[in-house]
Design a protein that fits this description.
The structure is a single chain. It contains nine helices and ten strands. The protein has 267 residues and is an alpha/beta fold. The chain has a single domain, classed as Rossmann fold (3-Layer(aba) Sandwich), CATH 3.40.50. Helix 6 links the parallel strand 7 and strand 8. Helix 3 runs parallel beside helix 5, helix 4 packs across helix 5 and helix 8 packs across helix 9. It starts with a strand and ends with a helix. Bound molecules: adenosine-5'-triphosphate and magnesium ion. The site of magnesium ion (MG) has 3 residues, from helix 1.
C-alpha cells in the first residue's frame, strides 16, 4: 500500500468574530466542519469549492499557519500540531497572500529563504533564477523591490520560493489565479514536470476546472466547510451524471445550498 503524504481526520475550524453594536456579540464561523481526506505520496489532489468554502483555511492549517480546533492531522508521518517544525521543513506553500519582505527585492527574499534552509548562496541564486526564468519571469526584474512588482510577478516569486527548497509536499493555494494565460500554462507545465522529475505530492486549490482536470489525479469538492464529493474527474462526472467538471461543481454546490435551506426551514 502506498504511504500517505496527508492524513486529515475530522478536522474542524471555528473562527470567532466580534459583531454587532459595541462588538459585544460573538459570531461563530464554522469554516471547516469535520473534514476527512487522504492524499497519497506522489499524488496530486485538487480542492474545488465556492468562495468561502474553507479551502484556504485547510491549506493554512496543513502548512502550520493556523491551528485546527479538532481532529487529527498527519503530514508525511508527522502529527500536527506536535511536529510543527518537521512539517514546516518539508512543506512548501504558495498563495496569493504570501508573506514577503515587500521592501526587499525578489533576489533578497529568495536568498533569505535559502539562508534559513542552510543553502549556499551561489547555488540558491542560480536555482532561484532558473525557476523564475522557467516561469517566464524576466531576470532583469530580480533586483526590484517586491512592492514594485505586479501581483502576477509576486505570485511567480512565491512559487520560486516554495520550489527553491524542493519540498516533498507542495500546498498550492490558487497557484495560477491572476496569471496571464501564458504564465498560467508555464506554471502548470512546471508543476507537471516537477511531479515527473521529483515525485512531489501536491495539494492544490483552484477555480479553474480545466486546471484541476489537467493536474490532479483526484479531486475533492468542498462546500460550506464540508467535503461533499471526491474522486477522479471521471468518477465525479459519472456520479453526478454530468459530462464536464463545471457541471459537476454546479450540481454538487447547488445541492448543498438546497440542503442548507431545508435545514433553515425545519428550524
Ligand atoms: N482569519 C480569519 N478570521 C475569521 N474568519 C476567517 C478567517 N479566515 C477565513 N475565515 C472565514 O472562513 C471561511 C472560509 O474561508 P476560506 O478563506 O478558507 O475560503 P476559500 O474556500 O479559500 O475561499 P476563496 O475561494 O474565496 O479563496 C469564510 O467564511 C471566511 O470568512
Ligand atoms: Mg482561498
Amino acid at each position: 500500500m502506498p504511504s500517505l503524504a496527508i492524513r486529515v481526520q475530522n478536522v474542524k475550524k471555528v473562527f470567532r468574530k466580534r459583531n454587532g453594536l459595541l462588538r459585544r456579540k460573538i459570531r461563530e464561523e464554522h469554516a471547516l466542519k469535520g473534514i476527512t481526506l487522504e492524499v497519497r505520496e506522489g499524488e496530486a489532489y485538487g480542492l474545488l469549492g465556492p468562495n468561502g468554502s474553507g479551502k484556504s483555511t485547510l491549506i493554512r492549517i496543513l502548512s502550520t499557519l493556523l491551528l485546527a480546533d479538532g481532529g487529527d492531522i498527519e503530514i508525511l508521518g508527522f502529527r500536527l500540531p506536535e511536529h510543527e517544525r518537521e512539517v514546516r521543513e518539508r512543506v512548501g506553500r504558495v498563495s496569493v497572500d504570501a508573506a514577503f519582505y515587500k521592501k526587499l527585492s525578489a533576489r533578497e527574499n529568495l536568498l533569505y529563504t535559502a539562508f534559513l534552509y542552510g543553502f549556499e548562496k551561489p547555488d540558491a541564486e542560480r536555482k532561484a533564477l532558473d525557476i523564475l526564468k522557467r516561469l517566464g519571469q524576466d531576470a532583469s526584474r530580480f533586483d526590484d523591490p517586491l512592492e514594485e512588482m505586479s501581483r502576477g510577478m509576486q505570485q511567480k516569486v512565491s512559487i520560486a520560493r516554495a520550489l527553491l527548497v524542493n519540498p516533498p509536499l507542495l500546498l498550492l493555494d490558487e497557484p495560477t489565479t491572476g496569471l496571464d494565460p501564458k504564465s498560467k500554462q508555464e506554471v502548470q507545465r512546471f508543476i507537471e514536470d516537477l511531479r515527473r522529475r521529483e515525485g512531489t505530492t501536491i495539494l492544490l486549490t483552484t477555480h479553474d476546472m480545466d486546471e484541476a482536470e489537467r493536474l490532479c489525479d483526484r479531486i475533492g469538492i468542498l462546500t460550506r466547510g464540508q467535503l461533499v464529493a471526491e474522486g477522479t474527474s471521471e468518477e465525479l462526472k459519472s456520479q453526478a451524471g454530468a459530462d464536464n467538471l463545471e457541471a459537476v461543481f454546479l450540481k454538487m454546490v447547488g445541492e448543498s445550498f438546497e440542503e442548507a435551506e431545508k435545514e433553515v426551514t425545519v428550524e
